[in-house]
Design brief:
mainly beta, about 50% strand, two-stranded antiparallel sheet, Porin_10, about 675 residues, Porin, signal
Length: about 675
């Protein structure tokens, strides 16, 4: 109840602020045109209906064109655009528009947004993992405590706006189990060349298992804050450009460990109940992941074929875990051992794990464009260090990288891209891809360093200092693109060979295998639209060879069926149902002391089907949805586990609203 009151306070603060920001812009018109065309972005203003767009009026500001804020300007989704940093880095002029459609708007949970290709511990905001193996996005040593990182703002997804008018987004979602999310975004142009903005997110969730705190009325499972400050600037002559942001994230979780079993209550029997007891029933286990990142990218265009660029990154992060009932959890078998030798347990009973991480890097290089050929080459230097206060020890390393990226466009729809990056004396990545309207193919080879968590841990129950060899992977993937007027069909295939894989065994201890692991995954993306009906089905069929050390389901299906209805050009309604299926497999267990998923051989998580009917609505600039998640709970099956002994949410009702303000 406390966190819901906090959210109510935040919403009460942000909504008037957003409206106040619009009021302070003199002479703007916040209404939509009286008559809307169904082809103009689902009822949003069409650029053809806007007048005096892009004209300056009045005196100039610091030599820059002032914005036209006259009443003739009609602001909307077609007067605002944003870019990602990758667009600028790769010299691509892409003006991305705000999404105003109802397509999959009802998918508000993180695993739903990923197409169910991620899994958690049954509640939004809990430790996340990929369902299928994916290669890492970056080279070099990483900290390895990353189960909460997907919920933070991602640097490659930061939106750098050119908003002309003040722009605001307010989104609020509430689901069963206290799954509550608030997102607020605000951006505005200081002038025609400079934009600043802020993004705020708050997520909370309640416990689904019973423990001591739950019995006393404290239901909070987790609380999360995210704050993003961003800015972008381009000089009047377009020779210089700057993108930058500050990213803050703070996640706190009261870990429960999963369902507590007994001789009477088996894993299958536990799925029949919603009031199960937690393994860590004393409510004395807590995790925290907090970081702040600073990033800036800037470039200078001397000539089109010769440009200078640089990216600078600074990160400070602290990851903690404490279990003040360590001895009891040790007796219950949740932890494998203790390294403390004593006759009687001390009064201050605790398992404590902490890592303080710092990273500094810069990437400096040249890039350019010649006709339809684009290149980028660079030198990158990175220094990282990690400190463990428990034994007052420290690891650090200085890394040097070189890289090359090239792209050749043959026409608007056909291009070839190749890239390579090398960490001197260690990691490397070589990748090439070809894309056309009818097919695409990608091949890559990568060798990357094990993480700090895999090589070095020191606490009461887990201790190791390893020197694992690099993990390497070969991957080739391809897909065909076939479509007719009403149907599209995209079959695909991914083949991966993984060598020297480092995994956490059934005792959550890291081990490296010398045997190769082969992954063969067939995908089918099938969908279409007919009259007012639209639908899609994505199927993943996965098989493996070699040791069974990367546990993945053999079959995963994600589907949607929707019916769109329009009422008097004012109300847009979509009725639909989401369908998700996953086959049985030995899903990983989770150890919160290490923030690591690890193997378990005790229980095969059963197959399941989940049905989520919903209705979404849009009235002018406001979109809403109402959804019944897991509506088939207790009908086709009982519940299911998202991870070993972590049950999914039972049948729950959720709703959400998103409001866009353009002036």
């Amino acid at each position: 109840m406390k966190h819901r009151l906090n959210l109510f306070f935040v919403i009460s603060f942000l909504l008037p602020y957003s409206i106040w920001a619009q009021v302070l812009t003199p002479g703007t018109n916040s209404t939509f045109p009286g008559t809307q065309n169904p082809n103009d972005r689902n009822g949003f203003p069409n650029p053809a209906t806007q007048t005096n767009q892009g004209k300056s009026k009045g005196p100039q500001k610091s030599g820059r064109a002032a914005l036209d804020d006259s009443t003739k300007q009609v602001y909307g989704p077609n007067t605002i655009y944003f870019v990602h940093e990758s667009d600028v880095v790769n010299s691509r002029e892409i003006k991305r528009r705000i999404d105003t459609t109802l397509t999959l708007f009802q998918r508000y949970l993180f695993q739903e947004k990923s197409g169910f290709l991620t899994a958690n511990l049954g509640n939004d905001g809990t430790a996340a993992r990929q369902v299928f193996f994916q290669s890492p996005g970056t080279l070099g040593t990483q900290l390895g405590y990353s189960v909460y990182s997907p919920y933070a703002f991602q640097s490659d997804q930061v939106r750098y706006f050119n908003s002309k008018s003040p722009y605001s987004e307010v989104e609020y979602n509430l689901g069963g189990g206290g799954q509550t999310r608030l997102n607020f975004n605000f951006a505005r142009n200081v002038d025609s060349l400079w934009n600043i903005g802020i993004a705020l997110q708050r997520m909370v969730a309640d416990k689904v298992l019973t423990d001591a705190a739950f019995k006393s009325g404290e239901q909070s499972l987790l609380g999360q804050w995210g704050l993003l400050l961003h800015t972008n600037y381009q000089s009047k002559n377009k020779k210089y450009r700057l993108l930058g942001h500050i990213n803050y994230f703070d996640q706190g979780t009261n870990d429960q460990g999963g369902v507590k079993l007994s001789k009477v209550l088996t894993a299958d029997e536990a799925l029949k109940y919603i009031d199960n007891t937690a393994i860590l029933s004393n409510s004395l286990s807590q995790s925290n992941d907090k970081f702040i990142k600073f990033h800036v990218y800037h470039e200078y265009v001397g000539w089109k074929g010769l440009q200078l660029f640089q990216a600078v990154d600074v990160e400070n992060r602290t990851v903690k875990f404490r279990d003040k009932a360590f001895q009891q959890s040790l007796v219950d078998g949740f932890y494998p051992r203790t390294y403390i030798q004593y006759i009687q347990a001390p009064a201050e009973d605790s398992l404590y794990n902490e890592n303080q991480w710092s990273s500094y890097s810069h990437q400096t290089g040249l890039k350019g464009i010649y006709k339809q050929f684009v290149y980028r080459t660079y030198l990158k230097q990175r220094f990282w260090s990690v400190y463990n206060p428990l034994n007052e020890s420290k690891l650090d390393r200085f890394e040097n990288y070189v890289g090359l990226w090239i792209n050749q466009s043959f026409n608007q729809n056909i291009d070839f891209t190749a890239e390579g990056e090398y960490l001197l004396g260690s990691d490397y990545r070589i990748k090439a891809s070809f894309q056309s309207p009818f097919f695409q193919v990608t091949a890559q080879r990568i060798s990357y360093s094990p993480s700090v968590a895999q090589n070095w841990v020191y606490n009461t129950s887990y201790r190791w200092k390893n020197d694992f060899a690099n993990i390497s992977m070969d991957e080739i993937s391809g897909a065909l693109h076939l479509k007719s007027k009403y149907v599209y069909f995209k079959p695909g295939l991914t083949i991966q060979r993984i060598s020297d894989w480092v995994y956490f065994d059934s005792l959550a201890t890291p081990t490296q295998t010398k045997s190769d692991i082969g992954v063969f995954r067939t995908t089918v993306d099938l969908g279409g639209q007919w009259r007012k009906f639209s639908w899609f089905t994505k199927l993943y069929a996965n098989t493996q060879t070699g040791p069974n050390l990367i546990r993945m389901p053999n079959l995963l299906i994600d589907a949607n069926l929707a019916l769109d209805v329009q009422y008097k050009k004012l109300l847009y309604v979509q009725f639909g149902i989401d369908i998700h299926h996953q086959s049985a497999y030995f899903a990983d267990a989770y150890q919160p002391a290490l923030q690591q998923y690890h193997l378990q051989n005790n229980y095969q998580v059963p197959a399941f089907v989940q049905l989520d009917p919903y209705v979404s609505l849009r009235i002018n600039r406001v979109r809403l949805f109402f959804k019944m998640s897991h509506a088939n709970y207790g009908l086709l099956n009982n519940n299911y586990y998202t991870a070993y002994l972590h049950p999914a949410m039972s049948r729950v009702f959720g709703y959400g609203v998103k409001w866009l303000l353009f002036d």
